[in-house]
Amino acid sequence: QVRLVESGGGLVQPGGSLRLACAASGFTFYNSIMSWHRQAPGKERESVAAISVSGGTTNYADSVKGRFTISRDNAKNTVYLQMNNLKPEDTAVYYCGGYGSWGQGTQVTVSS
């Protein structure tokens, strides 16, 4: 079955960095657009970034442009989200999305 497993979340100080990873299985990863989303407490889930099947095209929410980078390794069935210059407002549960499915999420907390 389709499975998406996120990892890499944690507690980081403002200005710090984290790299999230999402390991995918159960579908043709190399042929699937992949994305990252997040949901903060009391807010709706929002799109953060998306990447085309080849990795040649990426899209970002305005709030993370210039700070976050989405990438993928089709040989490893994994999509990444490099997050730099993190801000307290980036605190949320981050979810990987693809092939109509979601992962279980990984908590990112930005706090001093």
What features would you describe in this structure?
By secondary structure, the protein is an all-beta fold. It is built from no helices and 11 strands. The strands form 2 sheets. Strands 2, 4, 5, 6, 9, 10 and 11 form a 7-stranded mixed β-sheet that branches. A 4-stranded antiparallel β-sheet has the order 1-3-8-7, with no helix packed on it. A hairpin with a 6-residue loop joins strand 4 (about 35-40) and strand 5 (about 45-50). The chain starts with a strand and ends with a strand. The model has no long low-confidence stretch (mean pLDDT about 95).
Short description:
The protein contains no helices and 11 strands. The protein is mainly beta.
Helix/strand structural class: mainly beta
Global shape? globular
For the secondary structure, the number of strands is 11
Distance between the termini: 40 Å
Radius of gyration: 13 Å
* Share in β-strands: over 45%
Report mean pLDDT, rounded to a whole number.
97
Biggest beta-sheet profile: 7 strands, mixed
Low-confidence stretches: none
Helix content: under 10%
Count of alpha/pi helices? 0
Pattern of helices and strands: EEEEEEEEEEE
Essential attributes:
single chain; 112 residues; mainly beta; seven-stranded mixed sheet; four-stranded antiparallel sheet; globular
SSE map:
Blueprint: E1 3-7, E2 10-12, E3 18-25, E4 34-39, E5 46-51, E6 58-60, E7 68-73, E8 78-83, E9 92-98, E10 101-102, E11 106-110
Parallel strand pairs: 2-11
Antiparallel strand pairs: 1-3, 3-8, 4-5, 4-9, 5-6, 7-8, 9-10, 9-11
